[in-house]
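Sequence, please.
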């Protein structure tokens, strides 16, 4: 494996691992909120962060968050951990420069792009757009990488030379 390719694969691995860590923190935070007065906690954090609770966007977000049922919170928390496990698997496999991880990442990342587009269509934010652009770049690179590897006689049969 070319050194520049291994560095790019490991950069993708770091991105996937950061996403996994973020989702683990989100999932843990959600489970910590279960059986607590979410409205009171949100009001406290709004005041602590110096946000205007009368702002229409803040008010709308607070009311939506305060009205999430415990069952739905559990579902979000579990979903967060499931996605974290997928991203962790991708990240560790890519970090170890495993060929199966390139395929796994290609399939998982490609399957999530339509959901990301839908979310951007519903509510566009800079972070959502940035993640979508990065994920499209990852898919493009992995397609190139896999095609290039498949056409290289030295890597036929899934064997790659480690750096």
């Amino acid at each position: 494996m070319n050194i520049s390719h291994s560095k790019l694969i490991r950069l993708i691995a770091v991105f996937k691992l950061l996403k996994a860590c973020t989702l683990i923190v989100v999932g843990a935070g959600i489970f910590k909120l279960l059986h607590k007065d979410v409205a009171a906690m949100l009001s406290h954090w709004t005041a602590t962060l110096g946000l205007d609770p009368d702002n229409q966007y803040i008010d709308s977000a607070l009311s939506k968050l305060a009205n999430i049922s415990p069952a739905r919170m559990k579902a979000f928390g579990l979903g967060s951990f499931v996605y974290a496990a997928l991203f962790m698997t991708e990240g560790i496999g890519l970090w170890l420069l495993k060929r199966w991880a390139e395929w796994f990442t290609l399939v998982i990342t490609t399957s999530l792009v339509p959901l990301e587009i839908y979310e951007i269509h519903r509510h566009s934010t800079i972070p959502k757009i940035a993640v979508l652009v990065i994920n499209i770049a990852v898919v493009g690179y992995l397609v190139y990488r896999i095609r290039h590897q498949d056409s290289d006689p030295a890597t036929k049969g899934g064997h790659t030379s480690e750096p």
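The mean pLDDT is 86.
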